[in-house]
């Protein structure tokens, strides 16, 4: 697996305005620019923060990407998601 590539893609979405716009416009096309395996590509394209964190991506980076893509007004949804039972299940599955 290529966690480094996933985090690089997330970093680009967060730090580069043009890449953020490209990601928002066409996540699948954006993902093609990185050496991701199929599962990582799906996590990135789907914007699946739970899967990204459970996979080992830096949780602070994932949070900042969420905020840059969906906006601060939607942050309550991220907070509920990562503090809910689905996050616990995703982390348990990774350990198991």
TrEMBL record:
InterPro entries: LigA_sf, Xdiol_dOase_LigA. Residues 16-72 form the Extradiol ring-cleavage dioxygenase LigAB LigA subunit domain. It comes from the Bacteria. Pfam families: LigA (PF07746). This is Extradiol ring-cleavage dioxygenase LigAB LigA subunit domain-containing protein. SUPFAM superfamilies: LigA subunit of an aromatic-ring-opening dioxygenase LigAB. Gene3D superfamilies: Dioxygenase LigAB, LigA subunit. The lineage of its organism: Bacteria, Pseudomonadati, Pseudomonadota, Alphaproteobacteria, Sphingomonadales.
